Amino acid sequence: MKKLLILALLMAPSLYAQQRSFDVTDASKYFDIKIAASNCDADACTGKTVYSFHKKGSAKAYQVVTMSDAYIDISEGAPVVNETLLYDKQSVLNIGDFNFDGMEDVAISDGQQGSYGMPSFNVYLSSRAAGKFVYNEAFSELGHHLGMFDVDKKAKTLQTFDKSGCCYHITERYKVVNNRPVKIFVFEEDAMNGEIVTITEKKLVNGRWKKKVKKAGLDEYYGNQ
Question: If the chain, 225 residues long, is cut into consecutive pieces of 10 residues, what is the mean pLDDT of each piece?
Fold first, then answer.
């Protein structure tokens, strides 16, 4: 009886954590992605994950990216892709032109290293010279805030959001210069004292920061939003 109990305990994790694979065919016009996840339950996959990139219609992968950790939301049955809802769902993959060079780039979940344990992302930029996606540290830093950064295609800017508790929020905006994100705008709302909100706005103008600061009552400020 004791041996059976030990065997049952050893087998128990396998009943809840399974390896799973997923085919992502609607994230890009140019390529498909196969995801092989090592540790899945009914709602999510975590741990080591392998992403294989295939040109449309090709069975052979032209690039394979292995992550030591990931967070893949499968609560609706399949991985969420190209969807970002603040404080809510975050995609395992985000496909977009992050450096505005006309080519699709990819942000891949590397676990839950964002603010408040939110999913975080490593960014790989398309490289014609290399013929593949190339990891970019500067863009990846933008993927480690409160969820995936926003991409404004018209203004050609990237935007991150962060917070501390209920009463401090910060939005930062970036332009891409020489293939690197450069911060050009900061907007802070600080209501940590509970009665007054300090609103700070900074803009980079001709290489120099210009700052505006104003204060407002808590009810007055948030009542007008």
Answer: 48 64 94 96 94 95 96 90 73 95 96 86 96 97 92 97 91 97 97 90 97 90 72
List, in sequence order, the alpha helices (H) in the chain.
2-16, 137-142, 218-223
Q: How far is residue 215's CA from residue 210's CA, in Å, rounded to a whole number?
A: 17
Asked if residues 167 and 191 have their Cβ atoms less than 8 Å apart, the reply is: yes
d(CA 161, CA 157): 14
Burial 145-182 (b: 16+ CB within 10 A, else e): bbbbbebeeeeebbbbbbbeeeeebbbbbbbbeeeebe
Backbone angles phi, psi at 29, to 5 degrees: -80, -15
In this structure, what token pair is assigned to residue 50? 């392998």
Residue 28: strand, helix, or coil: coil
